[in-house]
Amino acid sequence: MRLLIDFFPIVLFFLSYRWQGIYAATAVLMVATVVQTALIYAIDRRLQTLHKVTLALVLVFGLLTLVLQDERFIKWKPTVLYGAMALALAAAQGVWKKNVLQLLLGTHLRLPDVVWGRLTLAWIGYSVFMAALNAYVAAFYSTDAWVDFKLWGYIFPVMFLVGQGVYVARHLKDETP
Question: What total number of domains does the chain contain?
């Protein structure tokens, strides 16, 4: 169920784009992201910062896309999101000596501090990679190609998350007596 909630805005965006073009798809993405955020809030009774930032960026960049009739805004939204995430993780770790991943997930996962540090570095690297990849596709390819990349490019986060799961599983502390 949770996976469906996570992916339905991009699937609706893709389908809307194929039927009605980028501006209709942008409006659908905006509405779907509001619904997605509401569902997450209804289930969890709270929103993580990433949900709030994603919603804000989708609404701001979507509105700019629609009002200015310029598809570049919606195409660059993922680059801004991934870049902001990399900067936030790096600043928290390097400047404030806070591991955001450990703060968010530490109550659910018991991992050594060194593992939390490696996970944070991996997330920073992944976010920089995805920001750069989206920027490249947005800048040098057609909107059709970018939309296809958005759909089929989901292989990157899936592979990254599976890799993170394998890595974390090796370091989980055994809680059994």
Answer: 2
